[in-house]
Write a structure and sequence with these properties.
It contains six helices and 15 strands.
Length: 353
């Protein structure tokens, strides 16, 4: 990532920061515009085809021209939306890195508006604003972990550095904190951060970054947890979508082709979404030769942990499994048979019950 030079003047620093923020806003607007163009153009293709089927007066040439134009608009809009999303990600990363270096060459964001600055003897957490309140944590009471967040069972993932700090340093005044309780903050793993950690004589624990991403992981077993409530809702919505799609066809033939085709498209869309929701309405706990993969029914909460990261897995309470890593814990549903299988393949990872 190419760094933005940091000028000496504070006024000029603020001017560049404001300019970079406007650039990110501009790219974000372009992303949403072309996403909308892609979606509307795709709907236009379907409506054009349906209207052509039910309206005798419409010429085939006009249909092909309209459908081709809408298809081109969908492809172009989707491609540009993807491009601007990528450019937005790069621009925002450069902007945040610039703001970090404006504060200090040893500063890094660990949250929205919160910076961690590596001092001579300790880590200083403070806000972006000048004269913001700060908290200093001695290096001897902090730990640093290199972590790769994987959302799929593969080698590639998002690298970060997780910092473990005693909770008492960040607790509110006069608020008692149990002894030994810790909190975790996270920052992007970048070369400047690794150099800073090395210069301060600190130890970076955890997984070290590999360059090869081509290794294919081997699935050993899969355990599913169906979500009956979500499946019932998907069936109800699917029925509504099917009725709407079926009603749109005679409506297009007997009354108004445009209205009927739009109703049919909406019905098909709802039916497709419901079918996808029905299929996905299950959580999955999968064991691989290389680690453990979890995906919830929405596909939002999903992660892959290598066996090297996992310290132990135990039944915390009825219906809940605790997956303990050196930098924190994950809590998963206790799917029938999963822990028993784990004891067979990885007994050293299972805590005594």
């Amino acid at each position: 990532m190419k760094e933005i030079p940091v000028p000496a003047s504070a006024e000029q620093q603020q001017r560049i920061a404001a300019s970079r923020k406007r650039m990110c806003t501009f790219l974000s607007v372009l992303f949403y515009i072309f996403t909308a163009v892609a979606v509307l153009s795709f709907i236009g293709v379907i409506v054009t085809v349906i209207v052509f089927e039910f309206k005798d007066g419409m010429s085939g040439t006009l249909c092909y021209v309209l459908a081709g134009s809408f298809a081109g608009g969908a492809a172009l809009g989707g491609g540009l939306a993807f491009l601007f999303a990528h450019l937005l990600h790069l621009a925002d990363d450069r902007r945040l890195d610039y703001l970090e270096r404006c504060d200090s060459p040893y500063s890094f964001f660990v949250g929205e508006g919160t910076l961690a600055t590596f001092g001579e003897t300790g880590l200083i957490l403070h806000g972006e604003e000048e004269n913001a309140l700060s908290v200093r944590v001695p290096y001897g009471e902090a730990r640093f972990f290199s972590v790769c967040s994987r959302r799929a069972p593969r080698e590639r993932g998002e690298w970060c550095v997780v910092i473990e700090l005693p909770a008492r340093y960040l607790a509110k005044k006069n608020h008692a904190v149990p002894s030994g309780e810790t909190i975790l903050v996270q920052t992007d793993r970048k070369e400047r951060l690794l150099q800073t950690i090395s210069e301060r004589g600190l130890t970076l624990l955890g997984e070290q970054k590999e360059t090869s991403h081509k290794k294919k992981f081997t699935l050993k077993a899969k355990y599913l947890l169906p979500m009956s409530g979500k499946r019932r809702r998907a069936l109800v919505l699917g029925g509504i979508g099917a009725v709407a799609a079926a009603a749109g066809i005679p409506l297009a033939i007997l009354w108004e082709p445009t209205v009927g085709s739009i109703l049919t498209v909406l019905g098909i869309f709802v039916l497709g979404r419901s079918a996808a929701s029905f299929v996905r309405a299950k959580s999955a706990l999968q064991f691989y030769e290389e680690g453990l993969f979890w995906r919830d029914q929405n596909g939002i909460d999903r992660f892959f942990l290598k066996w090297e990261e996992i310290e132990r897995i135990s039944r915390e309470k009825e219906g809940v499994l605790e997956v303990r890593c050196m930098y924190g814990s994950y809590h998963l549903p206790d799917i029938a048979g999963a822990l028993e299988y784990l004891k067979e393949i990885r007994p050293e990872k299972c805590a005594e019950q």
